[in-house]
Amino acid sequence: MSAELSQPTSPERSLDELANLASDVLARCRKLGATQAEVSLNLDAGLNVNVRMGEVETVEHTRDRGVAISVYFGKRKGSASTADVRAESIATTIEQACAIARYTEEDPCSGLADAERMATFFPELDQWHPWALDAAHAIELGIAAEAAGRALDPRLHNSDGASVSTGSSVAVYANSHGFFGRESATRHSLSCSLLGEDDKGMQRDYWYTTGVAAEDLESAEAVGRRAGERTLARLSPRKIPTQECAVLFVPEVARSLVGHLVGAVSGGALYRKASFLLDSVGQTLFPTWFNILEQPHIKRGAGSSAFDAEGVATIDRELVRDGVLARYILGSYSARKLGLASTGNAGGIHNLVLSANGGGFADMLKQLGTGFLVTELMGQGVNTVTGDYSRGAAGFWVENGVIAFPVDEVTIAGNLREMFKRIVAVGSDIDTRGSIRCGSILLEKMMVAGS
Predict the structure, then answer these.
(1) In this structure, are 67 and 211 located in the same domain?
(2) Same domain membership, residue 296 and residue 401
(3) Which CATH number is 130's domain given?
């Protein structure tokens, strides 16, 4: 196999080359005595530009490739990887994986995912939209975003910069069940972070847009203006007294609450008994109207895929139904450790969608009434074992459904089990920029530690 694999500008040609290489790798593994084998191959290319105060800071072109091989000798597993696709390097990588497997202890849960679970349906997910973006145009976009934001107000006198990036990736996963999965995807983004200052001090905020296709992005000027507006809104923050009050998380922050749920019901945490949600399937964790559905086949979705990292078919599946935890999030190894079946989530989740029972953001503010609107979280104060939650926060104090003034240097605290039960509403202001799609989330009350 030639070392000069095509870069992913023509996905079909690159995928064919990767598939041929995968077939060759699997054949070599069988020849060396492996009873099972799997290989992941990828080719990535990208451009990332950073500008600050109208000047170029960095221009980075990336061209990466990788080969990861796992072999199984019975219940013994060995893995090795390389970024060198020359025939002799791949041969050495296979030999290293086999050597590791021969000296590894047997693990009864080891092995490929079950053959009958392999994906056979590959819907068109509309993930390939390359952007003919060169460095000069990317620089122009970054400068335009920053300039549009800073032009809003003289108090926006400084900047953390703007970034523009585009990337494409093609990948093949294959295993000795005869499964060959091919994926090609593009991802583009533009972000801007601005600094503002008045007589009460300095504040920073940002905005970003991201998507599979360049046409899905907000304009550079719109991103810059949004970053500027958000920064201006945070100037002259006030203190609030320590109290228990209603709390509303904006969508881009609210998804972190779902992320904590995902971490607690994922196989690794469960079989290590490092989760506050052990043995929770079938339990009511949320209000009865609350639902989360995994939808892996959303076109242009950030987490869309026809198969997981082991080739297992992905399907629409409920995670939470009528407030009840319907299942865990498992790959084949963690499923075997728990005596369960894979949920097609080796490698992560595929577009979790929360059902909304509230209106848009203005409606959610009205439902909040008087309380704390969280727009930023700081720190890592979440204990997955106990569910205890304590994080630094910034945002706004809201009175009678109207934002009254900015707030910073507070801590919000609770326990995730109680927080989940206290969710009052999920807004229809859904943020689609990630694999967790949710609107703003309103909690009946939390402890807010201020002055």
Answers:
(1) yes
(2) yes
(3) 3.30.2290.10
Q: For residues 428 and 438, what is the distance between their CA atoms, to the nearest angstrom?
A: 8
Residue 170: closest CA among 254, 90, 243, 65: 65
- Do residue 280 and residue 181 come from a single domain? no
Distance CA 5, CA 85 (A): 8
In three state form, how does the secondary structure of 65-105 look?
A: EEEEEEEEECCEEEEEEECCCCHHHHHHHHHHHHHHHHCCC
CA distance 416 to 261: 8
Is it the case that residue 10 has pLDDT exceeding 90? no
Same domain for 252 and 210, yes or no, is no
The predicted-structure confidence for 368-404, as pLDDT tens digits, reads as follows: 999 999 999 998 889 999 999 999 999 999 999 999 9
Spatial distance between the Cα atoms of 289 and 426, rounded to a whole number of angstroms = 10
Locate 218 and state its tokens. 């907000």
Give me 286's structure tokens.
């949320």
266/405 same-domain check: yes
pLDDT tens track for 342-375: 999 999 999 999 999 999 999 999 999 999 999 9
- Picking from 363, 365, 427, the residue whose alpha carbon sits closest to that of residue 400 is 365
What pLDDT digit, counting tens, does each position of 12-31 carry? 999 999 999 999 999 999 99
**325-340 pLDDT, tens per residue?**
999 999 999 999 999 9
0.85 surpassed by pTM: yes
With CA atoms as reference, report the closest residue to 72 among 30, 114, 44: 30
Q: Do residues 330 and 394 both lie within one domain? A: yes
Identify residue 130 by its one-letter amino acid code: P
Bridge partners, residue 182, by sequence:
172
How deeply is 344 buried, as exposed, middle or buried, from its count of CB atoms within 10 A (0-12, 13-18, 19+)? Answer: buried
Does residue 356 sit in the same domain as residue 252?
yes
What whole-number distance in Å separates Cα of residue 450 and Cα of residue 403? 18
- DSSP secondary structure string for all residues of 246-291: EEEE-HHHHHHHHHHHHHHTBHHHHHTT--TTTT-TTSB-S-TT--
Contact indicator for 198, 232 with CB cutoff of 8 Å: no
CA 157 to chain centre: 32
User: What's the pLDDT band for 156 if we cut at 50, 70, 90?
Assistant: very high
Q: Which two tokens stand for residue 219?
A: 């304009």
Whether residue 278 is found in the same domain as residue 228:
no
Give the domain extent around 229: 11-233
Eight-class DSSP state of 317 = E
